[in-house]
Design goal:
This protein has 426 residues and is of the alpha/beta class. It contains 20 helices and twelve strands. It folds into two domains: 179 residues, Periplasmic binding protein-like II (D-Maltodextrin-Binding Protein, domain 2, 3-Layer(aba) Sandwich), CATH 3.40.190; 199 residues, 3-Layer(aba) Sandwich (D-Maltodextrin-Binding Protein, domain 2), CATH 3.40.190.
């Protein structure tokens, strides 16, 4: 009887221990299930601002979303996906990466609820950019835009100049500025090993305006050759500006030797001689400090005007597309949260980011310039990513850059485009 009691006691103790282990394991499993791993390329201040967005979601939902950024993101996410150890969510900077992951079956389509939120709160172009093979995978959040013309507000208005809405109006403004003894444009291509990218941005903007988004996509994917007549037409439009020393401050030598960040500074020289600089929303950080301190009073901005009215006023830019690798609890809820203005407002208030949400309150942006850019972004019916970033590196970060330099330096358009076409990897 005593022996039986000892056995029973041992069994009871063992059961209690195992129950404790099971309970602890259950708690740990539950905690793990609440964790949502998010991986992306933005770090530093950008990561800190995104962490604030995540904090709002965590407090609302009870989940524990955590973000990790890496300078080697594009390499690491591919390795992790192929190894079967991806994060739950990733912020992809290029549509081509999403297409690859969708084709390989690494990422999951969005839930019908998230897709409904996209339909309600985004222009159709953003759903198109986030879709592949008839399924929607991506939610766009923070984006950037390049298709803008900056001008010295006080001098511009003092001259009586009007913001152009069409390309013909832009041409008329250029001629008016020349008649008044000024230069319409300040342009700088210099950027170290990346010299020429400013010219490719101009080219991409004009391609969208002259050929439209479908031909633009064919160009990016090499479904038409680089020396196609549509591409030549766009380059001819640029030649009207780049190759006219009356239109560009300092002429070709200035374009080729001036750093892109420095090219905005002559707009604020006294007396004002130069009136326009085409660049992305980041360029305000390169303006003289006294101008940065008084942006709303000193600086004006407008979208690069339309050329063909059927394309409206296209916007060129980029953005972070969030996709799902693991369809675990909380993941689709986080994706739905990203479609709401609640997920963008805190970042807009701090500055340095734009958002495509139709429901956004433009008053949340810290200054009138960002409000104007955000409105143009939301109103755009055509948005496309930077073409050179989507092309093979040999072209997009090679012959296309150098070709624009050679064109400004005097090489004829046909030869420039033919040489770029020959460089496309076969």
């Amino acid at each position: 009887m005593r022996k039986f009691s000892k056995v029973m006691l041992f069994v009871l103790v063992l059961m209690l221990v195992m129950q404790g282990v099971w309970a602890q394991g259950t708690k740990e499993t539950a905690a793990q299930d609440k964790t949502i791993r998010i991986f992306g390329a933005f770090r530093g201040e950008e990561a800190a601002r995104f962490d604030e967005i995540i904090r709002i979601f965590n407090e609302k939902s009870g989940y524990n979303a955590v973000y990790e950024g890496s300078p080697e993101f594009e390499t690491q996410i591919l390795v992790q996906a192929e190894a079967g150890t991806p994060p739950d969510i990733a912020a992809l900077p290029q549509p081509g990466i999403m297409h690859k992951f969708a084709q390989e079956g690494y990422i999951k389509p969005l839930s019908s609820r998230v897709i409904g939120m996209i339909d309600a709160n985004y222009a159709p172009v953003w759903k198109d950019l986030g879709s592949y093979g008839g399924k929607t995978y991506g939610v766009f959040h923070r984006v950037n835009a390049k298709s803008f013309v900056w001008y010295p507000k006080k001098a511009f208005e003092a001259k009586g100049y009007k913001v152009p809405k069409t390309w013909d109006e832009l041409r008329a403004l250029q001629d008016q500025i020349v008649r008044d003894g000024g230069y319409p444009w300040s342009i700088g291509f210099e950027s170290g090993n990346a010299t020429g990218w400013v010219g490719t941005d101009w080219m991409e903007d004009v391609m969208l305006r002259t050929a439209g988004p479908e031909v633009y996509d064919q160009w990016v994917n090499h479904e038409i050759p680089f020396d196609h007549p549509a591409v030549k037409r766009a380059l001819d439009y640029l030649g009207e500006i780049f190759l006219n020393p009356k239109y560009v401050y300092g002429g070709a030598p200035y374009i080729l030797t001036t750093n892109f960040g420095d090219s905005v500074k002559p707009l604020f020289d006294k007396p004002t001689k130069v009136f326009m600089n085409r660049q992305g929303n980041f360029i305000t950080g390169f303006m003289p400090q006294n101008i940065q301190d008084n942006l709303e009073e000193e600086v004006g901005v407008f979208p690069l005007p339309s050329i063909d009215e059927k394309w409206g006023t296209p916007i060129l830019g980029g953005g972070d597309q969030f996709v799902v690798f693991n369809d675990k609890p909380g993941v689709q809820e986080f994706m739905e949260f990203l479609t709401t203005w609640e997920s963008g407002a805190p970042w807009a208030q701090v500055g340095g980011a734009l958002f495509p949400h139709k429901s956004q309150d433009f008053n949340d942006y810290g200054n009138s310039l960002e409000r104007e850019i955000a409105k143009a972004l939301v109103d755009a019916t055509v948005f496309r990513f930077d073409a050179s970033d989507l092309m093979p590196a040999e072209v997009g970060a090679g012959s296309f850059w150098t070709g624009m330099v050679e064109y400004v330096n005097g090489k004829d358009a046909k030869s420039v485009l033919s040489d770029i076409e020959k460089s496309w990897p076969r």
